[in-house]
Design a protein that fits this description.
With 282 residues, this protein is mostly helical. It has 14 helices and no strands. The longest helix has 30 residues.
Length: 282
């Protein structure tokens, strides 16, 4: 099946198009190879939990334990009502888990697939879609925890919930572009992967995940910029606000859409300039 798909890649596979057109064909054809990258992404998860009875639900169990333990502890430290704090924490941790895993997986997308890339000519986008699909499956498993917490906290159902599928599409599109951008750059400069890992670790502590931006008032109001100018916070908020029944976060949506456009432009420019060099850098 892979070789049949390779046969239909068209002129871009042999360099017959301009760099921009070839990059666009790579982008589109990679997404269209759903049968391949969906199978490979699911195979990655099956391989990780081979011979396990519970399988990927171990991720959900460990996440649920962490949410419960941290919710009990930090609700007391921050003097928050646990019925309000636990949903806030659960959504933040699970969405952050998806974002951070994508960013940490992205630098090694092409390095980890070097054997396949050197033998079969496939669009670079296909390998990134494999990574995104794998993390979406894990995110779907962990979303069960959010549903359970919402039922426990008796969170009201509002019309803003229709925004959640839109937010997940935006997450997927951004993950694809981040994967292309970091995957290409980190294949050439391997140290960037270490910088990304350290930055993601720092970003976790300065993003309102365990703590609410509402605490930055009074004498701490001058630190409010930590949340206001933090794209990670706004990416989390476009899902957390609707689930918690809060008003539509218009500012967060504007920042997310602007960041999405910027990342897409950078990823596409990288694909135009370096698409043919990635295999030689492996």
């Amino acid at each position: 099946m892979i070789r049949d798909q390779e046969f239909h890649l068209g002129p871009s596979a042999i360099g017959g198009d301009s760099p921009a057109r070839a990059a666009w064909r790579d982008y589109v054809e990679g997404i269209h190879l759903f049968p391949i990258w969906s199978m490979l992404g699911w195979q990655d998860i099956r391989q990780r939990y081979r011979r396990s009875v519970i399988g990927p639900f171990w991720l959900s169990i460990s996440t649920a334990i962490m949410v419960g333990a941290m919710g009990f502890l930090y609700s007391g430290l921050f003097k928050q009502n646990i019925q309000q704090y636990l949903p806030f924490l659960a959504i933040g941790l699970i969405v952050w888990g998806f974002i951070s895993t994508v960013c940490n997986d992205a630098p090694n997308i092409f390095v980890g697939a070097d054997g396949m890339m050197k033998q079969i000519r496939l669009p670079l986008t296909m390998y990134v879609c494999r990574m995104v699909w794998r993390n979406l499956i894990i995110f779907a498993h962990n979303a069960i925890i959010i549903l359970a917490v919402m039922l426990w906290a008796q969170t009201p159902i509002t019309w803003e919930l229709w925004l959640i599928p839109v937010a997940i599409l935006i997450y997927s599109f951004n993950s694809l572009n981040i994967g292309l951008l970091l995957g290409i750059l980190c294949t050439r400069f391997r140290d960037i992967g270490q910088l990304v890992a350290n930055f993601i670790q720092l970003l976790f502590f300065i993003t309102p995940i365990m703590w609410s931006p509402d605490i930055l008032t009074g004498k701490d109001a001058n630190r409010a910029w930590v949340a206001q100018y933090n794209p990670a916070y706004h990416f989390i908020e476009i899902i957390r606000a609707p689930v918690l029944g809060q008003p539509l976060p218009q500012n967060s949506w504007l920042i997310v859409l602007a960041a999405t456009f910027l990342v897409w432009v950078l990823a596409f420019l990288s694909l135009i300039k370096f698409r043919h060099r990635v295999t030689y850098w492996l």
